[in-house]
Amino acid sequence: MSLALRRQAIQWLPALAVFALGIGAWQGLVAAFHVQEFLLPKPSEIARTFWDERGTLWHAGIYTFKEALGGFALGSGLGILAALLFAAYRPLGIAFMPFAVAANAVPIIAFAPIMNDWFGLLNPFSKMAIAAVLCFFPVLINTLRGLTSVDPRSIELMHSYAAGRASVFRRVRIPASLPHLFAGLKIASVLSMIGAIVGEYFGGPTNALGVTILNASAYTNFPEAWAGIVLASAFGILFYGAVALAELLTTAWDPSRRAFHTE
Amino acid sequence: MNDRPAVHIKGVSKQFKAGVTALSGIDLEVRPREFVSLIGPSGCGKSTLLRIIGDLIEPSAGAVEVNGKPAHRARLDHDYGIVFQEAVLYDWRTVAKNIALPLELLRWGREKRARRVEELVELVELQGFEDHHPWQLSGGMQQRVSIARALSFDPALLLMDEPFGALDEMTRERMNLELLRIWDASGSTIVFVTHSIPEAVFLSSRVAVMSRRPGRIAGIVEVDLPQPRSARTREEPRFFELVTEVRERLAAGGLELEPAEEAS
Structural domain tally of chain A? Predict the structure, then answer.
């Protein structure tokens, strides 16, 4: 186990080195060329603001993350449900799939003010709805592919045991779709945070992260705006990591995951 | 019970939608406890015939009876187990759970399943691998899991579609011996599809030689090699005579195996 951990640590070393170099270069170049703060603040300045405003920022981050989480649950849940229905009843999929594709093409920015109008600017559900719309499609597409691209022989085998449709779904299609489902959920995890923030840009309570970023820029408090952006990304990354961990725990059997790691 | 054929194929034909006649006028009886191989070149419809016996494909004409019942009824009654060329294991299930899958579908209790799995793991000699996942096993081991799964509910009939076709020669010969041991221990009837002449002769009590386009049975070779067979069997003069006989039957209708297939 400790060997596996050490190998993990070694795998992350290059990325950490690039991160440190990037931050260092940013700090050095901003100082060397006297770049003005409203264009690009120094990382040290952003970090200091982050620390000073930690209480406000943290609460704003949690508030927005809850919206993202709600939207993720709603959008992914509906995406999974639609995928199950479309896989079970092909005509349904043929009838509805074009509309799912069309919904995905809706520019979400244009959609955000309408959601605020429908559900109320201060109602967190207006932001959840936007995040949900963003999450729905990638989860639907990936899950549907997982459910339908099952090896036909494994279905034939179930027929030889006289297994019914429900049993084939439960024992073959659904477990086989898990790696695909997680591919969709990972995309959705990051999108949900983006969706919540985009919604907040068109109005929301002052204790929301998107509103905090917007107000900070409006009052030319750019280090705080940057600190808010950093926090939003951090939440997105952590959420992605949590979903990836859930994937690791539930699909350890997936041979395609091992293709890169065989010696 | 014993005079009733395990498999009775009556005038079976199969046309596919594209107008290809895969099988034409097949008649064959397989007796209980018999080991019958279907051999022929690629495209002779031998896999199609096996799937018709298993009611996985419907014949265009004719009928199949398994244990005296229509094939459809036999499938619903779990009268046969099937093994494909690939092991077709479920990646998310361990070895033990793959073997137990048909038993779950038959609603066996947990303890009864566990006991049966233990017996089967012993039968196919996979002790210690019960909790492994398929990707951790070699091709030969995967195929043994697949055989154990097919035998799990003790079906009277085992259908095998080139089960060792993807294995190397040495593994294949060892698996042949194991299969004969399992056949003897389980008391089942086996219908075995192959395109290897030595494999068909070594395993079978009878070899049905099939011709191509349309697929029909060109002749039956009775294999009178003594039981039980061993690695020595492959060295007996009678073995070579029978291999030659099957080869000549295949050649009789201009039905040479393609060189690549004969080599396998």
Answer: 2
CATH topology of domain B7-79+156-263: Rossmann fold (3.40.50)
B23 Cα to chain A: minimum distance (Å): 21
Specify whether A189 is located in the same domain as A215: yes
Cis peptide before B214 (omega within 30 of 0): yes
Neighbours of A29 (CB within 10 A): 12
Q: CA of B57: which chain A residue's CA is closest? A: A156
- Residue A208: enclosing H or E segment and its boundaries? none
Same domain, residue pair A167 and A79: yes
What CATH number is attached to the domain comprising A78? 1.10.3720.10
3-class DSSP assignment, residue A255: helix
Closest-CA distance of chain B to residue A141, Å: 22
Domain that holds residue A3: 1-35
Of A154, A163, A253, the CB nearest to B105: A163
B201-237 pLDDT, tens digit per residue, is 999 999 999 988 788 888 899 998 888 888 888 899 9
The ipTM (two decimal places) reads 0.85
Percent of chain B with pLDDT over 90: 51
Give the side-chain half-sphere CA count within 13 A for A242: 10
Residue A10 forms part of a structural domain: yes
Name which of A160, A167, A258 is nearest B56 (Cβ-Cβ).
A160
What pLDDT, in 10s, does the model give residues A3-26?
777 887 888 889 999 999 999 999
Closest-approach residue (CA) in chain A for B53: A160
